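worker-03 picked up job from queue 'complexes'. Input manifest follows; four sequence lines, order preserved.
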Amino acid sequence: MNQRNATSLSSSLPSAAPAALDESALRLDKQLCFALYSSSLAMTKLYKPLLAKLGLTYPQYLVMLVLWEEDGVTVSALGERLFLDSGTLTPLLKRIEAQGFLRRARSAEDERQVIVSLTQAGRDLRTTAVQVPYAVACASACSLEQIQALTTELHALRSNLIAGRSD
Amino acid sequence: MNQRNATSLSSSLPSAAPAALDESALRLDKQLCFALYSSSLAMTKLYKPLLAKLGLTYPQYLVMLVLWEEDGVTVSALGERLFLDSGTLTPLLKRIEAQGFLRRARSAEDERQVIVSLTQAGRDLRTTAVQVPYAVACASACSLEQIQALTTELHALRSNLIAGRSD
DNA sequence: CTTAATTAAATTGTTTGCAATTTAATTTTG
DNA sequence: CAAAATTAAATTGCAAACAATTTAATTAAG
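worker-03 finished. Artifact:
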């Protein structure tokens, strides 16, 4: 019943205080960044055993998702789609290539570019992978509507965050 | 009370199998996982220059957030709070210690435990850090209400994802 | 045309995450 | 009490992310 401890006091302060001066602004559970970070890690852990059956890690799966949509893309195009750079993608692609799901080849028209293409094994893998999103949806205990709504919100946030950097 | 909390995110399961057979289920822009992953990375990039001024990386900042709330915690307690294990935390904490913001010391009562405590420099850093959340909120171009709502939704999702793993 | 600027990947080096194992301390059991 | 089980960190090894640099190819400028 004692209301005079620090926590109760700070959380019951008048909302007139500017956000920048709010003592509670640094509380972990208030941070959107941490909510994102910890949710993303939790999601990756949920995917891990499912993707292990396909022989893929989570970032490798993302690469395959792009290739199943659009085969024969450059490393840059892949990077624009996934918001990753060649420093991340080059070794990642080499590992997927070693797994046998894709091929990397210099473009004939422009030797600077590397074209990433699916192998037959890579195309075949899609059939198995189609079950993954369903399994994850079940495990996350969310309706498809909720998943879609949150996904849309996050796309908007991501746009704002990327715009906020260059401004 | 139910093991899975009664939030808006955990109410219903996907209705039936059709989702698994939907050809569009694998489209990158439909994936909640990728929305989370890419948003989280974008958020980290936004924080990076701000935290660099404090001499911290983003995960190091998260550790400091916990310590500013509760000083003198074990590595395990830190891990429960951040959803990270000792394999991640031990080297991370050593780097923050090298920066001079915290100390690591074996507990006298239980020599297995390591107690992590703030130094004076670590406590002082909080004053500067208080401005960070405000700067990020501005850059993300979201209202505080939107940020709070999304944070709450993500906490619920995270709970579901973690529960979904062990089930 | 040929030198300079630009572009695309790859490389290098640092910091995460995390599974699996190891080490050391504490508890539990027999 | 002593061996076994458990627990807490640390260690090891691998796979991302990413900044910064390098290499090689293409394009632009003089």
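worker-03 released lock.
Chain A touches chain B through 69 residues (CB under 8 Å).
Residues 57-60, 84-85, 87-88, 91-92, 95, 110-113 of chain A lie near DNA strand D (CB under 10 Å from a C1').
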